């Protein structure tokens, strides 16, 4: 039985309910910087107040609690779309939706709790604030890699769509996170209100300097391609709940054929159908690609399709020439846990648990890795299937530099509010990081043409059907981030953590 002293000690290690509620509210405020709201000017002050709330604590466990609950508020508000896949077949899966949201929010919030633990290394408000900023940036990096990675809704994503995003060409997404977290912490380095106000102004000036540098980069002259590449992107708008139905799949297939056959203002070099665009396997496609070639007038095509080898199924992109002959296949290799495969899938299948997106069997198998497809007149293309565009390291894993990036995706799984727009925003960031244009063909949207600086040149709205004909923008020279990846930021953050720990030891001596 817990003693009275033990109960009091437990309460002392946990903030009161009002401070926890405030932390959750502030975390939700930070999430307002994510798409589709894009309110970075709300997110940054909210992060600053949360940092101050944690830095004002003197008890390490209370800092961890505040970080955890603040993170829960952040991820609940930013990733609430996680319930959407459970609504596709609500009768079967709907009961799991609230559990998924709670587990996702509080599970991901453990990274923010870890940042609270880093803050606890500080001896005063200033070093605790710096510790929390350092911890948040470091855990944003960590969650891009650990447990197959999930770098969605990074703090630095609040800068997507602003000139600040251009800094990602040099620092990657973690540099954007560090800019936000350290700008939020900077006012806490002062002891007096006037000093803190001055430091807050300094933080604004620092962001303004990065903003101005990004604007200069955006204004620089654009390179031109020697030979234009013209691509048609197909958006059939096939709702996920209807996509595989026996009375609907032929309607969607015929719709994509009709969209392929629409006259083009200029000769096309490639037609692109989105992820899992057809309801049967590549092995059973028969004359599908010949029909596509006939509809397009002999234009090569890239089609999202599933395929099988023995007992293994793959989520693939098949490229065919103008005669309808398939000459290259890319298999998605960075799969979505529980969406495309189930860890320990054979055992889980005994309980009726299978992956959402896999139409055949209980999940997909991963492909061999990143590759560049030679599509002839359309150039050398780095293909990404859906979720792979979330990972900067997946683009850097390609064996050679492509002319442009092609993402095929089915964002119908993500609902209509936040999920598709957050996925779309991250595609823009990948273009900036690599200095490569990115075209995305999405089943329900957003289909878009994005240049090498992350600007959207043209797009089709969510939940509409249509075609998008566009010239592929020119590529830039390889960016510093394309050459080095996350290593420089990892070293800087690691040195910061070492310095924070060393400072604590010196103060303890």
- Point out poorly predicted stretches: 355-361
**Individual helix count:** 17
| SS content category | alpha/beta
Distance between the termini: 38 Å
Mean pLDDT: 92
The largest sheet has its strands arranged as 5-4-3-2-1-12
Strand percentage lies at 5-15%
- SS elements, strand count: 12
Proportion in helices: 40-55%
What global shape is seen? globular
SSE string: HHHHHHHHHEHHEHEEEHEEHEHEEEEHH
Radius of gyration: 24 Å
User: Major beta sheet, specifics?
Assistant: 6 strands, mixed
Question: Keywords, please?
Answer:
45% helix; 12 strands; single chain; 509 residues; six-stranded mixed beta sheet; globular; alpha/beta
Would you write up a description of this structure?
The chain is α/β, with parallel strands linked by helices. It has 17 helices and 12 strands. It has helices at residues 4-12, 17-31, 40-55, 60-78, 90-93, 97-119, 125-142, 168-185, 193-219, 240-243, 249-261, 288-296, 345-349, 392-396, 419-434, 480-484, 487-508; strands spanning 230-235, 270-273, 301-309, 312-320, 326-331, 373-374, 380-385, 404-409, 438-442, 447-450, 456-460, 466-471. A 6-stranded mixed beta sheet has the order 5-4-3-2-1-12, covered by helices on one side. Helix 3 (40-55) runs antiparallel to helix 4 (60-78) and helix 3 packs across helix 8. The longest helix is centred in the middle third of the chain and has 27 residues, at 193-219. The chain is globular, with a radius of gyration of 24 Å. The two termini are 38 Å apart.
